[in-house]
Amino acid sequence: MKKRYILGAVSLVLLGLGTSACSSKGDNSNNEQATSKKADQLEKKLDKADKDAKKQSTEQTNNKFVGNTFKTNKGIIKIEKLTKVTLKNATSDDDPNYHGDIHYVVIDASFTNKAKKGVTPEDFFTDNLKLEQKLAKSSHEVGGERSAFEEDLTPWKDKINAKLDKVDPGQTVQFAMSYQLDKDDGDKDVDTYLLQPWNSNTMDTYGKPLKLTASSTQTITKPNDDSDSDTDTDD
Description:
By secondary structure, this protein is α+β, with helices and mostly antiparallel strands. It is built from three helices and twelve strands, in the order H-E-E-E-E-H-E-E-H-E-E-E-E-E-E.
């Protein structure tokens, strides 16, 4: 009887070891599958990143200025001129106590949409180009959020509004970009600017910039009432 109990106990131990071994083998198999799956996912991500980098490099090689025209496979921007503007008697709805002069540079341009869907000239411009002031030994980027006084630049009213409207594929429109200068941000009174090609997603610049010299200066006086503004031009 005692011998039968011993054999039974040994059988249970062997069964437990076998079950444990099977369980361990199953866990290892699951771990290996999970590791293999993660490796495959990582490889796919690396492949995609490599393809995206090559695509970006190709696009940047093709995206460039030819004369005063910036050409890409998705759109074309032709730069017409850059004007320095002083808006006098400016007032702000956000700050009723504000009253003073605001300085701008305004770029007149045209945009042709070559993509398969509509896009605004402003979005295409800012995604592909940034404006810099050319200084003696360096350059300084200007621009940021849209100016609260932009609507007071009356000679460019229609063109400024046009930059906000989507352009259908194959269509060409005239538009204008305005940049408010702020000395607190390091903006200076200069005549020479650079339009630098860049990728707004990666913040990388590339290619040769277009050099722009102010073609004229204008002063716009915003009246205290709702009458039209007066504009003086100095060539």
